[in-house]
Design brief:
The complex is a heterotrimer. By secondary structure, chain A is an all-alpha fold. Chain A contains 13 helices and no strands. Chain A starts with a helix and ends with a helix. Chain B is α/β, with parallel strands linked by helices. Chain B has 2 domains: 236 residues, 3-Layer(aba) Sandwich (Rossmann fold); 157 residues, Response regulator (Rossmann fold). Chain C is mainly alpha-helical. Chain C is built from 11 helices and 2 strands. Chain C has a two-stranded antiparallel ribbon. Chain C starts with 20 loop residues before the first helix and ends in a 9-residue tail after the last helix. At the A-B interface, helix 2 and helix 11 of A face strand 3, helix 4 and helix 5 of B.
Chain lengths: 325, 417, 305
């Protein structure tokens, strides 16, 4: 019951956020929120692969980046429709995920980490060198997207609060889809594979096929997240593909608690908001403090926020049981 | 929530502010039927907010910190020393973070003027953002040629240099003074590749010959294979030039000497500085005799530089004054100049006009701005020499004032300002 | 424009005359120096993975810390050898503390957590370095009698690089002897295969793990001091070093010391020839090779006995 209340409360805050922007607090916090939403979408896909499927990828930046660049190029050269941008981003990241997934899903554990890392690095250097993609400068000056397919609506995505609701809607849809997948038979097979791959194979499941599908799904989610951020920022740079993004994704998932969907979402919000706050407050020392905080989090609660929540609930459960006659 | 650091060298800031405020209130009381004067007085005593989004983490943090100190010095010497408030943000040398922090400064803190990031790609991203928000911005480094051309903006002034203005123009001097057989070497990223491309064109046009080109990976610091290429090049080059990133250059210079290239009489010409005093110390004997090209040198003799160095010694005695300081100082004095023209009240139009027309002699020498709002700075060729027991970067030749072209054939494309 | 007269040696082949024996020999010799540096950098990483089971992302940081501590020692005492001995001692002490208090609590849990912890700590280390030594690049001065160059088969070879070659060969030989011939080496090899069995023999595996971690860190610190003299000392050197080390151990096989040596030789010569043959493509090729090895022979090129 309390988790329903909590969820409702969070939703209410999220919906009300733009109302105070510009008056009670700065517009800037909406930008921060949109950035969080883009990463939330990315994390949802990542958790399906890593949390449920047990395959930790250190290369998700390449899908994030490919979605972002695909959306940017669409908006710049084809049409300003945000739906077109999203569609192209989905196709681009899906293709990339198919290829990389086909090749990579034969390695496991640390070798899978290295493999995805190698592919992502290759993608990063490629984008950093291609002149038509802007090389290191990236693509500045992307026109603001529009909700309509052809013309522009009076209330369009160039206003920050409108874009925020759009991003919120996409993130909500992503969450519902991810939850559906996790609860479905496919989701349960993934968990089975994570727990004991050999047994899943003996039970007759095509492990490789399942994992490749999970990889594809997580790649598409990442691409959508990248597209959302790119359309908002109105520029893209090769830093979308940088390994530090992959590292951040892993961090957010770990901190939140892998395999719970909600955990990584909270992790994303925590890392981005804390990072912004700390870097503004401390200016010079903040990376040092961040590193220490991450290390402390891993040491004291490796299962992340979700783990802490579970433990608290268990404590409350035993306390109630003790109070019961 | 930005780190607000008040002018540390006037401990009575708050008192002074209260004094000014009470003075304004008194004036208001006396003014009575003249509300306009009251408003002016109040406006003239309000805070001036300067936002700095620069590199404060990572290796570039040395540039961020040094230029910030110099900006503070410029304000310290102005009449705004008690009114100015600095807001510092770390851009982490990433364009999206730089824009995010710029947003924070402009939207949340409401800064009057922004001082821009260090790297080229971040500079471009923040410049585009400031263009959309019509916020005045000055760049310390961030010498991206696109801002001088295609992406020029009325709201952006490049006060430091562009990577073109401190590289390509040295070619005629190289061909004339050092030799016509050149080996080009550029770190494998956009700056290195662009500079090598421009120098390649310049050398061919000037009748020189390129005996080889190499692109060592940035940050790797292992140059043996490229030294092998230089040794095996035919005909043997007289000079090795191009652009190799700062810390890599220290390794390259040491290895250049170790592998015997310096003994053979080969000399290096580095662009965008590189053979500075600080780097010279790290290189030691291996660095002596090499050249670089940039605007500033600690050892320039004109009066404004001497005064600047003396002022800095009193302001921050531990600093070894170099080009990051000099550019920061110029940025600071430009903002002050704009404020003077606007009567002490930050006003975009008046400040932009004033800064655009400014001609001054700063630590670097005589400076002004081109129509693309990019600095025309003096260009100096420096050489590392051993003076006593110290290794110094001494200016040996002045190539005059250099701006960055803004026509379609220029390095950054056409600027339509 | 008529071509000026040139010395006969440079007439062969032209600017990219790969085929000429002189060029081949130069690239080979220079590749060896790169390889010898890589052996120092990667052997520690490989050992730590083999015994401790952790891919130590702070490995590059250990190298960097070794370089900076070495630099301070040289500046203070004027002796390069003080740095070469002192820096590993300092870094090893720190590494032991790190292993005891941060890694040990995570053993038995998902290896991802350990990986992640070492990654977080590498962030801390690189910022620590910035705070303590500042951001300017410095360099460890080589001892005067190791400067200059010798002539090997007509090619100028810096004396210090020759020293590095000999030094890393000796170190590699010593390590190999230790691992293959000594009692503790046998324990280590056993631990590489089956830690539980070693425990069953009554050997304190915790101490063994700490000792191997310390050894790996010490090797990294030595590598750092050597790199600091051969190249430079800067706050971003850890990134480049950990990347090189990772590629070497993937090629050679994680956990295998011989693999680290073979991988270093391969990568060193590839780097040397690659710069000549495929300029500007180095950054792509390195990742393609890594991916290729992981796809077709993930356990590395060397099958360790």
């Amino acid at each position: 019951m309390t988790s329903r209340l909590a969820a409702g409360g969070v939703l209410l805050v999220l919906l009300a956020l733009p109302l105070g922007a510009g008056t009670l607090y700065s517009d800037f916090y909406l930008s921060l929120a949109i950035r969080v939403l883009a990463f939330v979408i990315l994390l949802l896909g990542f958790d399906l692969l890593a949390g449920y499927g047990g395959l930790i990828s250190f290369g998700h930046a390449m899908f994030f980046g490919s979605g972002a660049y695909a959306a940017a190029l669409t908006l710049k050269h084809l049409t300003t429709s945000v739906w077109a941008a999203l569609a192209v981003a989905i196709v681009a990241s899906a293709l990339l995920a198919l290829v990389v997934g086909f090749l990579s899903i034969r390695a496991r554990e640390i070798y899978f980490v290295f493999l995805t890392f190698a592919f992502a690095q290759f993608a990063y250097h490629a984008v950093n060198s291609w002149e038509w993609a802007g090389a290191a400068n990236g693509l500045p000056g992307i026109p603001p997207p529009s909700l309509w397919l052809a013309g522009r609506l009076p209330l369009d995505l160039d206003r920050r609060s409108v874009f925020y609701y759009f991003a919120l809607a996409v993130a909500a849809a992503a969450f519902l889809v991810a939850r559906r997948i996790a609860a479905s038979a496919f989701g349960r097979v993934l968990v089975g594979i994570r727990e004991n791959e050999e047994r899943a194979r003996f039970l007759g499941y095509d492990v490789t096929r399942c994992l490749r599908r999970a990889f594809l799904i997580s790649g598409v989610f990442a691409g959508v997240g990248g597209a959302v951020l790119a359309s908002f920022q109105s520029f893209v740079a090769p830093t979308f593909f940088h390994w530090s993004v992959s590292g951040e994704v892993l961090l957010m998932a770990l901190l939140g608690g892998m395999g719970t969907l909600v955990g990584p979402m909270a992790g994303a919000a925590f890392v981005i908001v804390l990072g912004d706050f700390l870097s503004s407050w401390l200016a010079e020392r903040w990376l040092l403090v961040m590193g220490l905080i991450y290390a402390a989090c891993v040491l004291f609660s490796p299962t992340g926020f979700a783990g802490i929540a579970r433990r608290l609930r268990a404590l409350r459960g035993t306390a109630e049981a003790q109070r019961a006659p | 929530m930005s780190k607000k650091v008040e002018s540390q060298f006037s401990p009575v800031t708050r008192r002074a502010f209260l004094k000014a405020a009470s003075g304004a209130t008194a004036a208001a009381a006396l003014a009575g039927p003249f509300p306009a004067t009251v408003n002016v007085a109040r406006a003239q005593s309000r805070e001036i907010k300067v936002g700095i989004v620069s590199a404060y983490s990572g290796v570039f943090s040395i540039i961020g910190k040094r230029s910030e100190l110099a900006i503070r010095l410029a304000f310290e010497k102005s009449k705004y020393r008690d009114r100015v408030k600095f807001f510092i943000e770390d851009s982490q040398v990433k364009p999206d973070v730089a824009v995010q922090k710029a947003q924070r400064l402009v939207e949340r803190e409401g800064v009057d003027v922004l001082v821009g990031p260090v790297a080229g790609h971040e500079g471009l991203a923040v410049s585009e953002y400031c263009k959309s928000k019509k916020k005045l911005m000055l760049l310390v480094y961030g010498g991206n040629v696109k801002i001088a051309g295609e992406n020029c903006s009325r709201y952006t002034f490049m006060v430091g240099h562009t990577i073109w203005s401190v590289s390509a123009p040295v070619v005629p001097w190289i061909l004339e003074t050092l030799g016509k057989d050149v080996f080009l070497i550029g770190s494998d990223y956009i700056t290195g590749k662009d500079i090598v491309r421009w120098m390649d064109e310049g050398i061919k046009k000037g009748g020189g010959r390129i005996v080889g080109t190499a692109f060592p990976p940035l940050g790797h610091s292992e140059f043996a294979p490229y030294i092998a290429q230089i040794k095996n090049a035919s005909p043997r080059p007289k000079v090795v030039t191009g652009f190799v990133g700062g810390s890599d250059l220290v390794a390259l210079t040491k290895q250049f000497d170790e592998f015997g290239l310096k003994r053979e009489g080969l000399v290096m010409v580095q662009t965008i500085g590189g053979f500075s005093d600080i780097q010279a110390r790290a290189m030691g004997e291996a660095g002596v005799g090499h050249y670089d090209i940039i605007h500033y040198s600690h050892w320039l003799t004109h009066k404004e530089n001497q005064d600047f160095i003396a002022d800095f010694k009193k302001f921050a005695p531990a600093e070894l004054v170099d080009d990051a300081h000099a550019i920061g100082y110029d940025v600071g004095t430009c903002i002050v100049h704009g404020l003077d023209a606007a009567g002490g009240v930050p006003d975009n139009e008046k400040m932009i006009d004033a800064i655009g027309k400014r001609r001054w002699v700063g630590p670097r020498g005589e400076c002004s701005f081109g129509p693309n709002q990019v600095i025309r700075h003096p260009l100096n060729i420096r050489q590392i020499q051993k003076v006593g027991s110290e290794y110094r970067s001494i200016p040996i030749k002045n190539l005059g004032a250099m701006g960055t072209p803004w026509d379609a054939s220029g390095p950054g494309g056409a600027c339509k300002l | 424009m008529p071509r000026a007269r040139e010395a006969p040696a440079s007439c062969r082949g032209g600017p990219a005359g790969v085929a000429s024996p002189e060029v081949l020999l130069t690239n080979l010799l220079y590749g060896l120096t790169i390889a010898s540096a890589l052996i120092l950098i990667s052997s520690g990483l490989s050992l730590i993975f083999g015994v401790v089971g952790v891919v130590n992302f702070s490995h590059g940081s250990f190298c960097m810390l070794g370089a900076y501590v070495g630099y301070s020692l040289v500046m203070a005492t004027g002796s390069f050898w003080a740095a070469l001995v002192g820096a590993p001692l300092v870094v090893t002490a720190g590494a032991v503390l790190m292993e005891r208090f941060t890694l040990r609590p995570l053993y038995g849990l998902n290896p991802l957590y350990q990986l992640f912890l070492t990654f977080a700590l590498s962030l801390v280390f690189s910022n620590l370095v910035l705070m303590l030594w500042g951001g300017d690049t410095v360099s460890i001065p080589t001892p005067a009698y190791l400067r200059g160059f010798v002539s090997i088969l007509g090619i100028a070879y810096p004396t210090f690089r020759l020293f590095v070659l000999v030094f890393s060969a000796c170190l590699a030989a010593a390590l190999w002897l230790f691992i293959e011939r000594s009692v503790w080496g046998a324990v280590l090899r056993a631990g590489l295969h089956n830690m539980e069995m070693v425990e069953a023999f009554g050997i304190n595996t915790r101490a063994l793990v700490t000792a191997v971690f310390a050894l790996g860190a010490g090797l990294a610190a030595v590598a750092g001091v050597v790199m600091g003299a051969m190249r430079n000392v800067n706050p971003e050197m850890d990134l480049d070093l950990i990347t090189s080390a990772l590629i070497v151990v993937v090629i050679g096989g994680l956990g295998s010391f011989r693999g680290a040596v073979i991988g270093s030789l391969i990568l060193g010569t590839a780097e040397s020839f690659g710069a000549q043959l495929l300029p500007g493509l180095a950054k792509f090729i390195v990742w393609i090779v890594m991916a290729a090895i992981l796809l077709w022979r993930p356990e590395g090129l060397v099958r360790d006995a």
